[in-house]
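Re: the request from the purification team.
They wanted to know what the chain is likely to look like in 3D before they choose a buffer screen. I agreed to run a prediction and write the result into the notebook, where they can find it.
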Amino acid sequence: MKLSYQWLSKYLDLSNIEPQDLAEKIERTAVEVDSVTRLDYKLKKIVVGHTLEVVDHPDSDHLHICQVDVGEEEPIQIVCGAPNIAADQDVIVALHGSRIKDNVKIKRSKMRGVPSNGMICALQEIGFPDSVVPKEYVDGIYVFPADSNVHPGDSVMEVLGMNDDVIDTSVTPNRGDMFSMNGNAHEIAAILDQTAQFEAVPEVTSVTDAKLSDQIKVEIADDQLAPVYKMRGIDQVKVTDSPFWLQTLLMKVGIRPINNVVDVTNYVMLKYGQPLHAYDLDQLQGKTVGVAKAEADTSFTTLDGEERQLRDEDLVVTADGQPIALAGVMGGLTSEVEPTTSRVVLEAAIFDPIKVRKTARFHNLHSEASMRFERGIDYGAVTDALNEAVALINEFGKGQAYPDEVVGAATTKEPAKVAITLAKINRVLGTTLTISEVEAIFARLGFAVTTDENAETFEVTVPVRRWDIHLQADLLEEIARIYGYDNLPVTLPTGAPTVGQLTEKQKIMRNSRQILEGLGLTQAMSYGLTTVAKSQNFLKQTTEPVKVAWPMTLDHEALRMNLVSGLLDDVAYNHARFVDDVALYEQGRVFYSVEGQAQPREVEHLAGAITGSLQATTWNQPQQNVSFFDAKGIVEKYLQNMALEGQIKYVADQDRKGMHPGRTADIYLDDQLIGFVGQVHPTTAQEYKINETYVFELNLSKIIDAPKQMQHYEVISKYPAITRDVALLVAEEVTNEQVLDVIQGTKQKYLTDVKLFDVYAGNHLDAGTKSLAYQLTYQDRNATLQEDTVNQEFAKVVEQLETQLGATIR
């Protein structure tokens, strides 16, 4: 909400407090303040000028030579290229030596040989944004209207109200009352211990004999959708520009002037916090107005010219059943107030805030009106806002108001009453406030208060304008902030201190990051939201994703069920910027839907993605791209460091979505699936626009819960090791894992390591066979190992390989 300091000064005495100091008090007591700005910041020597003569430039088809009266003894000559420049106009002139927007200095110059002693400016050139400039002046210079009462030489900053400080507040959802000037005046009066002086609602001076109720009816079938709905009208209106003071006020608080009808509705909305909507009575598609849920798939064109498909959840205002507005959000194009409009009907209502919010979010129409309806409207200000709008439109449009008000719903709110004791106030806040001090605080807030016979309990009546207060806790907050948070006593917490430490789960998660970083991977963080397709990729089975009800974009509409998709997005981001060697990991949560439950199941996962080379290419180290075994080695080392008690197995997997069927393995801890490792399918890699990439993903929750070995150090043996090499001729389908299982199954006492160092298949071997060569290492940690002992154990290994696998020793 943008607060005009000068406007606030009409209600409060601000002579002794600077705008910056006032903003600080608001921030420390009520809501956050984003900024305090002045449109005239660093501007100087910008004045009103009157064009006396405008002639075409002899050497240009668009420039004009202007003689301009700027309040000096002689007119000055300025060359101007604006398409709407003409004689006898009051315009904005930046004199020689002036400073305009962005601290640009204006100097005397020549434009195609003709001297120019300044610049005739558009509003944008002196600091107004495009969004607030009247449409007729967006592409040209600004011309002061006839009622501006300006004179050559007047300061433009003062005339346009640019010397006003604008305090931009960030209104929280619970303080909808501060979305109005009146609400802010009440709040600031309490902060400064003043009484706000509000103007009386202006009276309608010209009234027609006809009645609005004879021309339109309002029927609200469900007052839950619109607890309050009222209409008033004005006949014989002339739709024209608003008075100059109203245009300048709206522009400096961020609203574009449109015409006298629309501008009044915006002004009243700023003043009371009550959004209004104006309809052209002659263009309404029916004379019975109502509020209802829209019919699904109905087409409706809003004021911005966009055709929208309505849902049955959208709330609409209807005329004879046909939608004429998205209730509380935006009006319809067919009933828009136009220059030819002569009969205007005004709507003042309170709509269901939840439905307004859902409608605004779905159609991406977050208007000033919807922001207020979502946070709540003051039930006590609806009639005043409507009557003031009628009076002002009647005055500015020289019309005749209908004397009656058409009411469809008029729900009233009773002031909330909350009881609280002085003892509780002082106990919770840690203060020693007296009865009179508490009563004074309630008086500053405008709350009526009575006490019981013992003067210990306060019965507080909260005005309707503060609909956020219902509980004792609300009253305690009000007392604390008006009393001053800085004035509350400061005490140290009591109780026995505890030593902070990480839980076992947190230790494992932290160690996981350290291990992977030690293995050369860099941590990445991805969005928890992704597309439906990406959320379901890299899974063994198709699972229904958890979708967001109101996604920001289609790229973020479902919770992720894997981490690999996010890492591949990061790989693609780097690849698009010519970074081809990428090694990333991510530790985070994935989300699975649970039938019959609204909340998803959250599981900790750990994933990595590697592409390109893990080692930098040098003169003696050629490029060596990562392979499946590099990714598998990283996983093996990580799981080894986790010291899991169970046995880790890798089983070929040909069914995992998005993965290469011949280069992917599932990872098992005993018989429990804990993850996978492998190459991203070339088709999937092509979709991400990345090169050959290897990934892994582990269920970190299962790893955390799995039994761990107690890790003790082992002394390095000082006795020599003995190795034996063996080459086996086996069937082609025999795997390395089968060979290792047989060797380990012989339960060798001194066998410390088995290493595959050669694989051969081809010439000189029978068809369907291959040769596997292994090196077996034997070592005794306590004594020198004897040759006979090694020969005996090695013979057992050979025997079992021949028996179980049909191997032939070469």
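For the purification team: The two ends are 87 Å apart (CA to CA).
Please add any questions underneath this entry.
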